[in-house]
Amino acid sequence: MYLSSISIELGKGVLKHNNRKFIADNVDRERTKNNVEYKNIPLEEAYHILFDEALERYNNKQKRADRKINNYLEHIQKSKQEKPFYEIIVQVGNRDDMGIGTPNEAVAKRILEDYLRRFEERNPNLFVFNEVLHMDEATPHLHIDFIPYTTRSTRGLDTRVSMKKALEEQGFVGSGRSDTETMAWLQSEKEALSYAMQWHGVEWENQGNNREHLSVLEYKKEQRSKELAELEGKVEELKETADNLEKTIETVMVLSTDEEFEKEYTLPEPQKLESAKSYKNRIILREEI
After folding, report:
1. 39: left (phi > 0), else alpha (psi -120 to 50), else beta?
2. Buried b (16+ CB within 10 A) or exposed e, 81-102
3. Which of 13, 116, 185, 252 shows the greatest Cβ crowding within 10 Å of its Cβ?
4. Residue closest to 105 by CA, chosen among 114, 96, 115, 116
5. Each residue of 252-287: pLDDT tens digit?
């Protein structure tokens, strides 16, 4: 099986470049006709499709006119918390093994198209509005532009832009800056691309250890399973301790109701005008007998 590398990374999302409204220096104009545009919905229209109903519901709840949002896209563009949309650039191999003009050029194209075919199915919270395959640069690659959104928002619009929430709803959970939802998702998409490669006789050339083939999400699940097994072991120990304690309590309860036990361990009443010293000596004498 042929070995090749994988590259999936976040792009700048320059739509005019993606759709060749302007031509960069690294583009071969003669090959631009070979590019494939799978989807091209204007960003403004995509926002209307996704958010108009939620925007109407939100505005109807507002009692003050200054809290209403007239244009949600403009609102997000002014926001410092969310981006209007995101982009990933997807590529198999490099200019030497999968580049334009190599024997594997057509294979690279088929792999990318197979990967793209199930992208939206894998990512129900990412609204794809622009998809293009570039065949006019050094190596075939995809630009996928999408709007991440959540339908479970409790603040602002009930359906709103959120990369973090969108990926969380798809099962990706981060634990910090070095392990974010986006990192886990990108690793998962690399695996999806590697599966598409296998159908065409190409295997992901793993640059590190075998763990790199395991998605961050799956690795976390494996770790959680180990932690759960340890916790279950501790729970069993606690249950055993509790059972032993319960048996001890039952034994004490039985003994405490026994006449001989009561006679043996019940202290006698002090006599009238008996001193504390006399009472103590009488108890000690009783125990010695």
Report:
1. beta
2. ebebbbbbbbbbbeeebbbbeb
3. 185
4. 96
5. 666 555 555 556 656 667 676 667 677 667 666 665
